[in-house]
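step 3/5: co-fold with NAP
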Amino acid sequence: MHILITGVSSGLGHGLAKTYLAQGAEVYGCSRRAPKDLIQRGLHFASVDLADARAGTPVFEELIRPVPHFDSVFLNAGKLGEIRDMQATPLDDLRETMEINVWSNKWLLDSLFAHSRRLTQVVAISSGASQSGMRGWNGYSVSKAALNMLIKLYAGEQTETHFTALAPGLVDTAMQDYLTNLPDDPRYQPLAILKAAKGTARMPDAESCARQLIQILPQLLELESGSYADIRKL
Ligand SMILES: NC(=O)c1ccc[n+]([C@@H]2O[C@H](COP(=O)([O-])OP(=O)(O)OC[C@H]3O[C@@H](n4cnc5c(N)ncnc54)[C@H](OP(=O)(O)O)[C@@H]3O)[C@@H](O)[C@H]2O)c1
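step 4/5: write tokens
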């Protein structure tokens, strides 16, 4: 099995890579920071800043060059940004969020589909924030909603590949550490819910979530390609 995962240095991407490596898969991954523990276990890794398409494209293409077919591709890397009102969010910050959470997935997919490379299944990690539009989740919500549409559009073009934009539910990662350490603020209602979920079964750790995600991959293939799905509702 050949697997590609973006954002392998921490959180869900790290959990997915660790699980697949333990199963004996050939795993390819990128992020800015190098996950030394996974590289020791055989991860094929390249350091790529997804905010910089020009510098990142040749490095990514060199990483995937030897692989003519990927069984699963996880477009997992993502940036949350600060929880604050849209009006208080600098335009450059929103642009960077869109670059990482949306446009990087366009050039990653274009590189992946070059040279007649075949991809069986692509799962883009989306979020419930793509639907809910909760105050404070500004650029993150906009970017994940756009990601869902990007995936739908690629599904219409690449009919030999199955695509899903998948919300993974709450996962106990660095992203949640940031959110659950914010001071209570009545403007940003999900914070209280996240703080209550942290440390409970409602917010599994990254490896548990990765195992669940790998288990439901065949179920995703039954959905229309390009669909948005929430792991909690499957
Ligand atoms: N945690 C949750 O509850 C939750 C809920 C819904 C959706 N999600 C989604 O799940 C995915 C994984 O998030 P996580 O919770 O595991 O967060 P995380 O621990 O912060 O991991 C984010 C990953 O993305 C990579 N990344 C961020 N910016 C990058 C950049 N400019 N270039 C290359 N890689 C970059 C990071 O690597 P480097 O920093 O080393 O570059 C890291 O490996 C994200 O798409 C997130 O939106 C998470």
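step 5/5: annotate
The radius of gyration is 17 Å.
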